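We emphasize that the prediction below concerns an isolated chain of 112 residues; any contacts that depend on oligomerization or on bound cofactors are therefore not represented. The input was used exactly as deposited, without trimming of termini.
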Amino acid sequence: MSLLLVWLLSALGIFITSRLVDGFEVKSFGSAMLASFVVGFLNMILRPLLLLLTLPVNILTLGLFTFVVNAMVLRLAAGLLKNFTIRGWGPAIIGAFILAVVNMLIFWIFPV
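Result of the prediction step, given as a token string:
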């Protein structure tokens, strides 16, 4: 049950982010749910490898490069899905930052 709630709350985070960032677009909440699933899968499979490969840069930037890694994952997910689009690296990086803040607030309000 908690896994379903985490999925719905993550989809809500993507949906809210799409309303706040120009160039970061999700057509509907259903599309946000699919995007949340794909982003979660990519975070599980690809993100650890990307973080390992970019570790020196991440250390030099005191962890801020993690937003770029998150933007890479978001852009890849957007490339795989029809109703989720990110137009450029600017919206992807800003979206990654806003999504982190929105998810932090959502999961603070609804602890799972």
